[in-house]
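ERR on first pass: missing label on line 2. Operator R.T. fixed the label and resubmitted. Corrected input:
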Amino acid sequence: MILTGAGQIGMAIARRMGYGMKIIVGDRRMENAMLVANTMNQAGFDAMPVEMDLATRSSILALIEKAQTVGDIKYLVNAAGVSPSQASIETILKVDLYGTAVLLEEVGKVIKPEGAGITISSQSGHRLPALGEKTNRLLACTPTEKLLDLDVLQPQNIRDTLHAYQLAKRCNTKRVMAEAVKWGKRGARINSISPGIIVTPLALDEFNGPRGDFYKNMFAKCPAGRPGTADEVANVAELLMSSRGAFITGADFLVDGGATATYFYDD
Ligand SMILES: NC(=O)c1ccc[n+]([C@@H]2O[C@H](COP(=O)([O-])OP(=O)(O)OC[C@H]3O[C@@H](n4cnc5c(N)ncnc54)[C@H](O)[C@@H]3O)[C@@H](O)[C@H]2O)c1
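pass 2 clean. output:
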């Protein structure tokens, strides 16, 4: 298994699906990768920490190569990312949009038959108005090295870091659809999950950031009335990655306690 993003969501999913196999834990912050690998190894898993940067193709390729020295790649869990309060527009686009696209592309070239992948998108991507068929296709299919040249992703067309994040997460779901066709030719599946507010260090940065009150209000008002946990995201990931999800690929699953429903339809 390749796990990118040694955070709470990534670890929760890896613990459901990574038993009995080597888990390569990649993170830009080696201390995070080591902490998660250590926690998992003390719980009976076989995890190896690796420093990597999702923003660069060479780093992604090196991670895949490292994983292949151990064996075939059966599972991908991509839970690396930066949030609107953590990074600049440029970094959000490089990591969350471009890096995710490259990772799905490169793992899709080598994934084992009957393998499966999950990438973590966000409810944020569901708040953006429809972008139209032409833009959807461009986000889904533009060759990865040209993605950041698209008009819709140019600085004059992006209001702020939240808008950049929403575009990145919308793009994730479109790439997953296009990649599902390619992964399918290898007998493998790829899906995305769009979580709502899940308590993790990333979400805590949002609570303490400029949009803190907005986020706290969001979960207080949603049908669930609370933020979610990484384990609740892992419940869905387990279904999607296991053989019980064999008929599900190229799909996105909103796991947000109903926050998106409230956003659109709470009159
Ligand atoms: N927590 C939430 O409320 C929430 C909601 C929706 C979506 N998400 C998404 O879930 C994913 C996981 O986030 P989390 O909440 O578990 O956060 P987290 O902070 O627990 O973990 C994220 C990890 O990604 C790593 N990372 C950041 N940039 C990287 C890079 N360039 N290369 C490699 N690793 C990098 C961080 O070092 C960190 O360890 C992210 O994509 C995030 O956008 C989170």
